[in-house]
TrEMBL record:
<feature type="active site" description="Proton donor">
    <location>
        <position position="294"/>
    </location>
</feature>
<keyword id="KW-0862">Zinc</keyword>
<dbReference type="Pfam" id="PF03331">
    <property type="entry name" value="LpxC"/>
</dbReference>
<dbReference type="InterPro" id="IPR011334">
    <property type="entry name" value="UDP-acyl_GlcNac_deAcase_C"/>
</dbReference>
<dbReference type="InterPro" id="IPR020568">
    <property type="entry name" value="Ribosomal_Su5_D2-typ_SF"/>
</dbReference>
<feature type="region of interest" description="Disordered">
    <location>
        <begin position="1"/>
        <end position="29"/>
    </location>
</feature>
<feature type="compositionally biased region" description="Pro residues">
    <location>
        <begin position="1"/>
        <end position="14"/>
    </location>
</feature>
<comment type="similarity">
    <text>Belongs to the LpxC family.</text>
</comment>
<feature type="binding site">
    <location>
        <position position="267"/>
    </location>
    <ligand>
        <name>Zn(2+)</name>
    </ligand>
</feature>
<comment type="pathway">
    <text>Glycolipid biosynthesis; lipid IV(A) biosynthesis; lipid IV(A) from (3R)-3-hydroxytetradecanoyl-[acyl-carrier-protein] and UDP-N-acetyl-alpha-D-glucosamine: step 2/6.</text>
</comment>
<keyword id="KW-0378">Hydrolase</keyword>
<keyword id="KW-0443">Lipid metabolism</keyword>
<keyword id="KW-0444">Lipid biosynthesis</keyword>
<feature type="binding site">
    <location>
        <position position="271"/>
    </location>
    <ligand>
        <name>Zn(2+)</name>
    </ligand>
</feature>
<dbReference type="InterPro" id="IPR015870">
    <property type="entry name" value="UDP-acyl_N-AcGlcN_deAcase_N"/>
</dbReference>
<protein>
    <recommendedName>
        <fullName>UDP-3-O-acyl-N-acetylglucosamine deacetylase</fullName>
        <ecNumber>3.5.1.108</ecNumber>
    </recommendedName>
</protein>
<comment type="function">
    <text>Catalyzes the hydrolysis of UDP-3-O-myristoyl-N-acetylglucosamine to form UDP-3-O-myristoylglucosamine and acetate, the committed step in lipid A biosynthesis.</text>
</comment>
């Protein structure tokens, strides 16, 4: 097995995370918001293993979240965070520009921006994949809170559910029903672990303390086989995966222990929040998820957009 590179530097903790209501207002406010300042973070990608620098900055009303990738020849390509541009890629959420370039592993940043109520942001990246850091969303959340959140006065429209919508794939099910706010009840069962469950309303503080610390996870031997496959075939698959970038499972335990109770199911919630952000508007509803993953999350967004009588913009 290849030796792991030293971990990427983590942004410092900010003592004011819970004590600055002007920066951490609930994401369901009446006005759209952007960042108070830009920030930059660097790290290696989970699949490419390559180092990337990401600059996340403010954007004007109506801009939404847009990724701007700088290509090797110096050209830049803009890719809006829209479900219509989503491309199926293994073990991540990826967006394909109409011009061709791909941006992968966007879900953790999108989840952090969504949970913190940031509607407008320009995300500039000098590589194909966003950094994975330690596999969690904590670095993104800390940087967003340090930058601050500023409402821009433009009315904020949200998707409010009028009836239940459900997608399923065997034992995997995901449904959303009318509810005030975004509430998630998630279930996952893993061999040697048994049932793992989490339920709660997604607010900035709940997301930061209970969901963001949960890391990407996988069986250690499968991850190492996948990494070897990617190396041999020269495909961008798990080349940055290891004990410093994911929670590695060996039989009934996670190497180094869990950071939060039932960590794997909480990470599924993290991914779900990020994938829902591709709907283009914040969603108000109660989600009930069993064994969900990226493909089922995207199937739900597709079903929602295909059934406009199931919701309204308010």
């Amino acid at each position: 097995m290849q030796r792991q590179p030293p971990p990427d530097p983590m942004p410092p903790a900010f003592p004011s995370e819970r004590s600055a209501p002007d920066l951490v207002s609930t994401p369901g406010g009446p006005f759209r918001a952007t960042l108070g300042a830009a920030f930059s973070l660097s790290g290696r990608g989970l699949h490419t293993g390559r180092r990337a620098t990401v600059r996340v900055g403010p954007a004007p009303p109506g801009h939404g979240v847009v990724f701007r990738r700088t290509l090797r020849d110096g050209r830049t390509v803009d890719v809006p965070a829209s479900w219509s541009l989503r491309e199926r890629q293994p073990l991540c959420t990826a967006l394909r520009s109409p011009e061709g370039p791909l941006i992968r592993t966007v879900e953790h940043l999108l989840a952090a921006l969504s949970a913190e109520g940031v509607d407008e942001a320009l995300v500039e990246i000098d590589a194909e994949e966003l950094p994975i850091f330690d596999g969690s969303a904590v670095p993104w959340c800390r940087a967003i809170r340090a930058a601050g959140r500023i409402e821009n006065g433009a009315p904020r429209r949200t998707i409010r559910m009028l009836r239940t919508v459900q997608v399923e794939d065997g034992r995997r099910t995901l449904r959303i029903e009318p509810h005030d706010g975004l509430h998630v009840s998630a279930h996952l069962a893993l061999a040697h672990f048994g049932p793992l469950d989490w339920s709660g309303t997604i607010t900035p503080d709940v997301f930061l303390s209970e969901i963001a610390p949960a890391r990407s996870f996988g069986r250690y031997w499968r991850a190492m086989l996948g990494r070897a496959y990617g190396f041999v075939t020269r495909k961008p698959f798990l080349q940055g995966c290891g004990v410093r970038s994911a929670a590695m499972i060996v039989r009934g335990r996670i190497l180094g222990g869990m950071r939060v109770a039932d960590e794997p199911v909480r990470h599924r919630v993290l991914d779900l929040v990020g994938d829902l952000a591709l709907a283009g508007h914040p969603i108000r509803g109660r989600l009930i998820a069993a064994h969900t993953g990226h493909e089922l999350n995207h199937a739900l967004v597709a079903r929602l957009l295909a059934e406009p009588d199931a919701w309204e913009l308010v």
